[in-house]
Amino acid sequence: MSAKTWQRALGTLLVIQDNASTVRAMATKFRWRIPVVADERGEITRALNAFFTPRAYGFIGGKLVWIQKDLSLSPLATLKEFLRATSGEEKVKRLLDDYVYELREKAWGRKAAMAVKGAKGHE
Question: Can you give the pTM of this predicted structure?
Answer without folding.
Answer: 0.58
